[in-house]
Amino acid sequence: MSGPGLAYTGSMNRVERALGVAAELADGERRAERAASARRAVAIGDPQAHAHKLFAVLDHHGLLGDDGWLRDDVELVSIGDHFDFGTRAQGTTDAARVDGPRFLRWLCAHPPSQTTVLIGNHDTARVMELASASDVRFDAAALLAGELVALKETAPHEAQARLRDEYMVAYPELPTLGLVHRDFSAFTEAQRALVQHELLDGRLRLAASARAADGVDVLLTHAGVTARELALLGLPDERDPRALAAALGAQLTAAVDDVRARWRAGAAAALSLAPLHVPGATTADGLGALPEGGGMLYHRPSDPDRPGADRSWEREVTRPRRYHPRTLPAGLAQVAGHTGHPKCVAELVRWRDPAMEETLSGRRTLRVAGDRISYDLGVHAAGPTDAVLYMIDPSFHRATDPAAIELFELAPGSIT
Questions:
Q1: Distances (CA, A) of 108 to 58, 103, 105, 259
Q2: CA–CA separation, 242 vs 362, rounded Å?
Q3: Residue 1: predicted pLDDT
Q4: Which of 115, 106, 120 minimizes the C-alpha distance to 54?
Q5: Crossing angle of the two packed helices 51-60 and 12-24, in degrees rounded to 10
Q6: Alpha helices in 306-375 (DSSP H)
Q7: Torsion sign across C-alpha atoms 243, 244, 247, 249
Q8: Closest CA to 204 of 80, 34, 71
Q9: Which residues have a Cβ under 8 Å from the Cβ of 379 and sit 6 or more positions away?
């Protein structure tokens, strides 16, 4: 037996047991604190895939116990983005609507000393862009969005007019067409309730710190931080991952506190992490378009001079979607997800090996050393004054073999 799109020859008992455990968990259900000391610590990239595939990967790496939970001596960091591996265009939203929440519940049910669960833009979208969306209205909007996205190919002016006169009039609370039709198309109200619950309980975090296997202290966030975020935090010269994780954590705590009473009362209220992270707008800009979100949980490194780059969209000051690698803070080592290798092959073209292929890889190194920028497969050491970003999104949804998925090793007991 194997899961969707997955060739697997490991222990199906552990995988099936984990699936059973995850299926039976309720929002907020918790497991007792473990007694064993950590023997292994890892970070996993964006877990946007069938739950069966995710558990098979964990089992392949020796992280699952016979009881369907993580082994008691394992610590795990999830780098964020637990929803939306399926889209309406692919006809795969039904599985995504179920498997994303199940895996997130399973992660959060472990004690905080064992799992550190970071938030990504797909997680925050449930309580930002989609903070007031209902299932009925979202589904209706998604049908219209799909029609308009297709119309763009044959009649772009008509599509733009209908966007303005139909979609934006009927669904002013929802974000841009692409987000509704593609990126967030597996949304449900139940997912929003789950994210709210885990944020209120403090189980979802904006950042963490740890020590990598080579002894270097690292900051872990969904998409990395640049000089922009450090300036917004009032810490332009800070390079201590613990201090930065604490400062980012304080930002999230304050944001949750602002909406805590309304969420507990069942009222609609959008979480705000602005200006660090800005959600996609639900109102038109001056050009009659719905701006997409940008900032800390959306941005990714890219070459501003690559073919096809659109600086006006990618580097808009208040909601940047891309950043130049030179804006990574020198002297800081980071671990982030959000961006798979295929996108980096295209967007970091000047700084990669010309022969580099679009293969799956969960461990890649973007390094800025003086005047030199390099993007390479694998984990490579950096100098103390270098800026280094270890990128660990392995494109889970594309993998067919758990052995192809690489995990990022951390020093046991070092995650804070």
A1: 16, 9, 5, 21
A2: 24
A3: 33
A4: 106
A5: 130
A6: 311-314, 341-347
A7: negative
A8: 80
A9: 212, 214, 363, 365, 390, 408
CATH number 3.60.21 is the correct assignment for the domain at 12-130+189-410 = yes
Residues 204, 206, 212: CA angle, nearest 5 degrees: 105
Q: Single out the residue of 78, 67, 32 nearest to residue 203, CA to CA.
A: 78
Provide the edge-to-edge strand list for the sheet that holds 115-118: 204-205, 115-118, 74-78, 40-44, 408-410
Length of the chain: 416
pLDDT in tens, 135-189: 999 999 999 999 999 999 999 999 999 998 999 899 998 988 888 988 898 999 9
Query: Which is nearest to 174 in space by CA: 130, 227, 239?
Result: 130
Q: Residue ranges of the domains in the chain?
A: 12-130+189-410
Could you give the CA distance from residue 167 to residue 162 in angstroms, rounded to a whole number?
7
Structure tokens at 53: 């595939």
Give the per-residue pLDDT at 352: 93
Asked if residues 382 and 367 have their Cβ atoms less than 8 Å apart, the reply is yes
Q: What is the CA radius of gyration of the chain?
A: 21
- What is the pTM for the complete model shown? 0.94
Single-letter amino acid, residue 204 = L
* CA atoms within 13 A of residue 268's CA, in its CB half-sphere: 10
**pLDDT tens across 377-405, in order?**
999 999 999 999 999 999 888 888 888 89
In sequence order, what E strands does 189-314 have? 204-205, 208-211, 217-220, 277-278, 294-295, 300-301
Helical ranges in 93-234 per DSSP H: 93-109, 121-125, 135-154, 156-162, 168-170, 177-178, 189-200, 227-232
